[in-house]
Write a structure and sequence with these properties.
mainly alpha, Rhomboid-like fold
Length: 248
Amino acid sequence: MARLSMVSLREVSVRSVGLALRCEVEQVRAALGRRWAERGIRGYLLTAAIASTIVIAWWADRTAGRSIVAVCCGERVDAPLGISMLRLPGSLVAPAALLPVWGSLAQVMLAFGISEAAVGARRTLTIAALAHAIGTLAGRYFVWYAPAVLGGLPTSWRYALDTGPSAATCGLALYVAFVLGCPRLGALIVIAVVGAFALHPDLAGREHIVALAVGATAAGVQLLMFRRAARHLATITAVPTPAATVSA
């Protein structure tokens, strides 16, 4: 009987988790559907622009424009900080060293598309830029300053190409999962990123974990601001107005 009860409890827990995940996926689909119904393709202009720029950069990197892509977008840890700051925007759409172009496009279409549907283009671009910038600049810490016990890497990583949208999409995906109230999807994202880092503990994996922290922090700050605003609004509505007092 004890074994049967344990088995039944496991089945119930697995079914409940599966049902909760299905509800969260439906919530994401509903956000996408509402955005499309309200604005159509115009509701995903940022996602389309980022994806198109990735394709253009990938094509230029395989033609005569390769030198231009390297100068404008070829972020490396050994570059001076001022040059790195100038290359940061372009490095988001530049071809990634270990990721095919279809992989970059898939990441952008999912993370940017869902986020743009849920919170709009402006907030999507802000969170993506923060995750990309902080994650990429954190690579300097891991290579130049961090000891081995804190994730430090050998100096040979200074010359590695550090480009692609992965850091931006990692931070953005976790951010929008929390904002939409989908903690189980967020947990799956964290497990996937941490698992990939465990298999390949390279510079990109460290930057992706930093980007996750950026996305989680941004979501936490936003949720706290919403709660404070809701409490303030509830306080205002609870206070009786002079007209209501006189009429009473």
